[in-house]
UniProtKB/TrEMBL annotation:
Gene name tied to this protein: tsaD
The UniProt record lists the keyword NADP: no
Keywords: Acyltransferase, Cytoplasm, Iron, Metal-binding, Transferase, tRNA processing
Protein residues bound to Fe cation: H116, H120, D313
Stretches that traverse the bilayer: none
Protein name: tRNA N6-adenosine threonylcarbamoyltransferase
Upper taxonomic lineage: Bacteria, Bacillati, Actinomycetota, Actinomycetes, Micrococcales
Cofactor(s) listed in the protein's UniProt record: Fe(2+)
Length: 352
């Protein structure tokens, strides 16, 4: 690395079903390769951890090679390696960590084991504009639903709330299954909702009752909603009626979107922070984006949505966290660090 150039960091992400390898130079995105094992999980209706881990093993080397080709670099150009240490599926994380340790040891490079959730927020710095802090961040995917208050990416990240049962994407996946739709559920519910009336069925908005305000103001729950859809399907079946699938899909989606955005904006207001950042695969939902745009504008909140390929799980966001740590002069993670499937949001880098 020349004295003036920002560090080139290769980031590896394997917390769920995407094998992501990204390369950044400081905050500039050079490569973002993703190999997904999603189709292998389709017939199970959700991610199967052992299948994901095996798929990461197979995809790792070709994905690293492809990222280097995209960035027009060789391993000689890499200054540091970053890898997701958690949270995520333990077996899947271990594959990424093993690969990162092998690479770092062989090339004598510093290695940073970093937090996946912080990565989702850091992804925004790669979009070309500076990330304004503090911000509220809503991260919604198949594996997590987290509401964060981010004051400083390098360590001051507070978890305000998270799901107490299913993740938002998981709710889409499970509900799609109930409706006989394919996996992943988000896109298939979107397709089924076309022409449906989002107000046709008043599905429950989890943890929004006045009694929930004390303990669960910024937590989420989607299992009651899923059960409510199941009751709907059963009732229609018992009555021998055709299920109004478009109305059910549209009303379900509306309930999820409504509660996500309402709680995120409540957090903005309660903390006096007029900024909201979205991340995670559920951001692909056009209705979520539309409602977010509309309600943020009405509330005077500036909304940031990174490009979709930086919202879904990817290695570039992990590389971005690594580049930030290198730039700050932080020491790398100790050689023996392990996967931490429940890593807390405020731990940017694992140090033991
Ligand atoms: O961040 P992501 O790619 O990775 C994991 O969680 O592994 O998110 C995937 C999740 C799945 O649960 C999928 O159903 C959901 O994001 N998703 C959507 C949409 N597209 C993907 N959810 C709602 N609407 C969508 N259009
Ligand atoms: Zn994620």
């Amino acid at each position: 690395m020349s004295a003036s150039a920002a560090p080139v960091v290769l980031g590896i992400e394997t917390s769920c079903d995407e094998t992501g390898v990204g390369i950044v130079r400081g905050t500039a995105l050079l490569a973002n390769r993703i190999a997904s094992s999603m189709e292998l999980h389709a017939r199970f209706g959700g991610v199967v951890p052992e299948i994901a881990a095996r798929a990461h093993l197979e995809a790792m080397e070709p994905t690293i090679r492809a990222a280097l080709v995209d960035a027009q670099l060789t391993l000689d150009d890499i200054d540091a390696v970053a890898v997701t240490a958690g949270p995520g599926l333990a077996g899947a994380l271990m594959v990424g960590i093993g690969a990162a340790k092998g690479l770092a040891t062989a090339r004598e490079l510093p290695l940073y084991g970093v937090n996946h959730l912080v990565g989702h927020v850091a992804a925004d710095v790669l979009s070309g504009e500076p990330l304004e802090l503090p911000t509220i961040a809503l991260l919604v995917s198949g594996g997590h639903t987290s509401l964060l208050l981010v004051r400083d990416l390098a360590g001051d990240v507070e978890l305000l709330g998270e799901t107490i049962d299913d993740a938002a994407g998981e709710a889409f996946d499970k509900t799609a299954r109930l409706l006989g739709l394919s996996y992943p559920g988000g896109p298939s519910i979107d397709a089924a909702a076309v022409g449906g009336d989002p107000r046709a069925i008043a599905f429950p908005r989890g943890l929004t009752a006045p009694k929930d305000r004390q303990k669960h103001r910024w937590n989420f729950s989607f299992s009651g909603l899923k059960t409510s859809v199941a009751r709907h399907v059963e009732r229609a079946q018992a009555a021998g009626e055709a299920l109004p699938t478009a109305d059910v899909a549209a009303s379900f989606r509306e309930a999820v979107v409504d509660v996500l955005i309402a709680k995120a904006l409540d957090a903005c207001q309660a903390h006096g922070i007029p900024r909201l950042l979205l991340g995670g695969g559920v951001v692909a939902n056009a209705r979520l984006r539309d409602v977010a745009i509309e309600r943020c504008e009405a509330a005077g909140v500036t909304l940031r949505i990174p490009p979709l390929e930086l919202c879904t799980d990817n290695g570039a966001m992990i590389a971005a966290v690594g580049a930030m740590l290198v730039a700050r002069g932080d020491a790398p993670s100790p050689a023996g660090f392990a996967a931490e499937s429940t890593l807390e949001a405020n731990v940017v880098q694992v140090v033991e």
